[in-house]
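quick q for whoever's on today - can somebody do inverse folding on this one?? i tried earlier but teh output was garbage lol. tokens:
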């Protein structure tokens, strides 16, 4: 008995989506693009996913630590990712002499600990995160190719290629977007977005 995979459109399967797929603000990555475009678009999609998970929430909800005993919050994730973007693209790839906006050797948890329900704290976090993304996007656009080697050493791995950093950033966001799914559901019950723009894969038996 063989199996084949069928793909069907079934809007009934999308009742629990975070947002109706026709209104999803995130364009899908191009399915047949070159390597750089593919990596850049998947990273963009992951960034936009985190922003989507934070949408429509007030300061208290963004700062809510809903998965005890973890100190994670959606606001903390934004602050943490601002530092991650800064560390990889400004410090490692571009060789700038910078430190984290929040995290440092004295307090590795500062991004999470300082994520409090305050309008100025929230505004600053999103402003810094978006500024680091803008720098990263320009750096990638200006790079001659994905084999570009970092200006400085990573503490554990030495010099890194831009390709490695892009793949790692996609992985980093994807992992934290799983956290954001749980945090958002704890806040208001909204669940994770179904992948595939509403298309559902099913196994169909062929006898």
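ok took a stab at it. sequence:
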């Amino acid at each position: 008995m063989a199996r084949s995979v069928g793909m069907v459109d079934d809007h009934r399967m999308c009742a629990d989506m975070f947002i109706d797929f026709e209104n999803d603000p995130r364009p899908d990555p191009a399915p047949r693009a070159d390597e750089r475009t593919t990596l850049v678009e998947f990273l963009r999609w992951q960034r936009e996913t985190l922003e989507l998970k934070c949408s429509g929430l007030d300061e208290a909800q963004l700062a809510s630590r809903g998965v005890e005993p973890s100190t994670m919050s959606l606001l903390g994730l934004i602050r943490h990712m601002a530092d991650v973007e800064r560390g990889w693209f400004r410090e490692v790839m571009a060789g700038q002499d910078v430190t984290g906006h929040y995290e440092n050797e004295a307090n590795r948890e500062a991004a999470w600990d300082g994520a409090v329900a305050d309008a100025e704290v929230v505004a600053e976090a999103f402003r810094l995160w978006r500024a680091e993304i803008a720098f990263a996007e320009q750096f990638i656009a200006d790079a001659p190719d994905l084999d570009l080697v970092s200006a400085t050493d990573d503490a554990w791995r030495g010099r890194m290629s831009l390709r490695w950093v892009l793949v790692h950033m996609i992985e980093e966001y994807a992992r934290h977007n799983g956290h954001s799914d749980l945090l958002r559901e704890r806040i208001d019950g909204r669940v994770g977005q179904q992948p595939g723009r509403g298309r559902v894969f099913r196994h169909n038996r062929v006898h």
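fwiw Confidence is low (pLDDT under 50) at residues 1-15, 196-207. also The two ends are 6 Å apart (CA to CA). so keep that in mind when u check it
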